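Dear H.,

Thanks for agreeing to be a second pair of eyes. The structure we're designing against is below in token form, covering all 133 positions.
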């Protein structure tokens, strides 16, 4: 399981002109699920994400985690994070979990975050690319 975590003042995801997920201050988490991932890895990642002290305290020192800072999470399913780009010029997504298992573990990760009392918005988009000419 791999996550790209970004501290944000606000974040949103818009699909075809409609906002499907939105938060104020907090963390934007792009989450990719790999074949060998399981609930234990999801739980560990949740603990790490919620525990990182990357928000400023009253002295502007990075000393607070997202909950202590009063932030929330926007978790976006992002299978491209597990891409293998070691060979050739075309990324391989063979390390990614099958869609049903990836969705289950994504939802498990989100549930673990919510159980710890943090407001969590979710966006689970299918892996579709559309070209516009």
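And this is the sequence the design step returned. I haven't edited it by hand at all.
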């Amino acid at each position: 399981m791999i996550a790209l975590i970004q501290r944000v003042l606000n974040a949103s995801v818009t699909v075809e002109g409609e906002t499907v997920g939105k938060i104020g201050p907090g963390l934007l988490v792009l989450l990719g699920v790999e074949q060998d991932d399981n609930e234990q890895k999801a739980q560990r990642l949740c603990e790490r994400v919620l525990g990182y002290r990357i928000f400023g305290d009253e002295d502007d020192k990075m000393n607070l985690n997202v909950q202590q800072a009063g932030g929330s999470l926007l978790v976006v399913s992002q299978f491209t994070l597990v891409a293998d780009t070691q060979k050739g010029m075309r990324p391989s997504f063979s390390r990614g979990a099958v869609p049903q298992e990836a969705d289950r573990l994504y939802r498990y990760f989100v549930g673990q975050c919510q159980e710890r009392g943090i407001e969590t918005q979710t966006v689970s988009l299918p892996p579709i690319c559309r070209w516009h000419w």
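Two observations from my side: The domain at 2-123 is CATH 3.50.80.10 (D-tyrosyl-trna(Tyr) Deacylase; Chain: A;). Strands lie at 2-8, 11-15, 18-23, 26-32, 55-56, 62-64, 72-77, 120-123.

Warmly,
E.
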